[in-house]
């Protein structure tokens, strides 16, 4: 997202759209052209031709419509077909020689384009066997499909059919809410049907600079307990989406304010420092984005080790992320060891070397003691890359018997190099002689 929301040029054009209701009066074909890359548009047109051949209607729907109206480049494309999406996707894949992944039970196909996600789905009605479960999908028309969605700004579609190409379908008043910068659910049961929508509401609000509409906010606050109905995987997915935002701290801070964070762990709070920590994480990771594990470790940094374990269990985190959290807590626990200006580099190295690098970065960002920070920084920037000059093979060719001694000696050489006692091959050989390992 590069542009501010509804920057003045977009606002000026709004009355044209605003007077209109229904599909006839607002044509967005020029915006499709402008905000969808040409190579993706080619595939969309090929899909539309196939749909037409089968007498089925095709629409661009959801987030891409919202983004086009906000004059952002569309990133992911969701196409909705009033018909059999699986069959059309298979034909499309054959025609365009792209790979597809089919989710037959969800009537959805994912086309794998080099730098774009394109989903083709059959228009559907959804039913939830119980709150928090994944929906059961039944074929339906576009209007029904739009009405089962999360928020009005995500419940618009643009026709891709020849006779009405570019026309906006907006039965839930999404355009008005875009104009008024509001996140609004479509019905009172929305958050109960799908509690992940509470996280989504906060994420869109903060990403777009919108407000959660007042009734929606009341519904959200009344439905908070439903967050317990979401599986760990789905909850983690929502957090991953937040960490993928440009400024995750904004969403997390608002989630804290509205009481959502409590449902990850009652002691997580989005304190004032989180923004500063995340800024440092971004600086430290340039030119890439920070790893998700770094954001997560910082979010949980103030929790005790066993509380972090509970979160890892709740979110069903993978081994690597769980290790990051565990190590981050351990480093925090042993930070006092590093709070001494006179420590030799070899001590710093051995205190940190067995820990996960992401956890060490989190500790650097979040530690307050100056000496601890300096030592962790020294480790991350220099010490962790230091190796002895002589290798195990060298030691053997110098006449030392292969076996456990070799490792012990290499460690000894490493410490000497870390502490500046050796800096060349000759120095290391001299040290081995001094230790009586060479004759
Ligand atoms: N959707 C929904 N309820 C959900 C998730 C998704 O109604 N819990 C609908 C919304 O209409 C949404 C569309 O499915 O626009 C696609 O979902 P997703 O790809 O998650 O969202 P996008 O709107 O594309 O937003 P983003 O920019 O975050 O990718």
Tell me what the structure shows:
51% of the residues lie in helices and 11% in strands. It is α+β, with helices and mostly antiparallel strands. Strands 3-4-5-2-1-8-9 form a seven-stranded mixed β-sheet. Helix 13 runs antiparallel to helix 14, helix 14 crosses helix 18 and helix 15 packs antiparallel against helix 16. Bound molecules: cytidine-5'-triphosphate.
In short:
With 439 residues, the chain is an alpha+beta fold. It is 51% helix and 11% strand. The protein has 22 helices and 11 strands.
Offer a few descriptive terms:
439 residues, two-stranded antiparallel ribbon, binds cytidine-5'-triphosphate
Topology:
Layout: H1 8-18, H2 29-35, H3 38-53, E1 57-61, H4 63-69, E2 76-82, H5 85-96, E3 99-103, E4 108-113, E5 116-122, E6 124-127, E7 136-139, H6 142-147, E8 157-159, E9 168-169, H7 174-180, E10 182-183, H8 190-193, H9 196-208, E11 211-212, H10 214-223, H11 232-243, H12 248-258, H13 273-285, H14 292-299, H15 305-314, H16 319-334, H17 345-352, H18 357-366, H19 370-381, H20 392-397, H21 404-418, H22 425-434
Parallel strand pairs: 2-5, 10-11
Antiparallel strand pairs: 1-2, 1-8, 3-4, 4-5, 6-7, 8-9
The protein binds cytidine-5'-triphosphate.
């Amino acid at each position: 997202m590069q542009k501010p929301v509804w920057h003045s040029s977009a606002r000026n054009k709004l009355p044209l759209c605003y007077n209109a209701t229904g599909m006839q009066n607002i044509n967005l074909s020029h915006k499709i052209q402008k905000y969808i890359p040409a190579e993706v548009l080619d595939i969309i047109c090929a899909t539309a031709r196939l749909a037409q051949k089968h007498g089925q209607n095709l629409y661009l729907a959801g987030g891409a419509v919202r983004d086009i109206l906000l004059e952002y480049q569309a990133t992911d494309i969701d196409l909705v077909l009033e018909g059999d999406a699986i069959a059309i996707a298979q034909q499309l894949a054959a025609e365009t020689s792209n790979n597809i992944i089919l989710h037959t039970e969800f009537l959805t196909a994912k086309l794998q384009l080099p730098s774009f996600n394109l989903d083709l789905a059959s228009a559907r009605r959804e039913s939830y066997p119980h709150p928090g479960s994944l929906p059961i999908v039944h074929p339906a028309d576009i209007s029904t499909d739009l009405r089962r969605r999360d928020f009005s700004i995500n419940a618009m579609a643009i026709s891709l059919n020849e006779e009405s190409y570019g026309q906006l379908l907006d039965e839930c008043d999404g355009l008005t809410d875009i104009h008024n910068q509001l996140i609004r659910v479509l019905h009172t049961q929305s958050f109960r049907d799908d509690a992940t929508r509470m996280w989504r509401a906060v994420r869109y609000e903060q990403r777009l600079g919108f407000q959660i509409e007042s009734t929606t906010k009341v519904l959200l606050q009344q439905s908070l307990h439903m967050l317990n109905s979401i599986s760990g995987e789905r909850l983690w997915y929502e957090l991953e989406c937040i960490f993928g935002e440009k400024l995750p701290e904004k969403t997390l801070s608002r989630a804290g304010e509205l009481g959502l964070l409590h449902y990850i762990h009652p002691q997580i709070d989005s304190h004032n420092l989180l923004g500063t920590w995340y800024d440092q994480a971004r600086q430290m990771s340039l030119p890439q984005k920070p790893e998700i594990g770094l954001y997560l470790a910082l979010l949980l940094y103030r929790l005790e080790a066993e509380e972090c374990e509970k979160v890892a269990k709740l979110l069903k985190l993978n081994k690597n992320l769980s290790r990051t959290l565990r190590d981050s807590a351990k480093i925090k626990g042993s930070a006092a060891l590093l709070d001494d200006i006179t420590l030799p580099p070899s001590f710093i190295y051995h205190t940190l070397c067995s820990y996960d690098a992401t956890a060490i970065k989190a500790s650097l960002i979040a530690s307050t003691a100056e000496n601890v920070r300096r030592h962790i920084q020294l480790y991350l920037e220099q010490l962790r890359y230091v190796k002895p000059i002589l290798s195990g093979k060298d030691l053997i060719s110098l006449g030392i018997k292969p076996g456990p001694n070799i490792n012990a000696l290499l460690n000894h050489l490493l410490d000497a190099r870390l502490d500046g006692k050796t800096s060349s091959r000759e120095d290391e050989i001299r040290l081995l002689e001094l230790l009586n390992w060479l004759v």
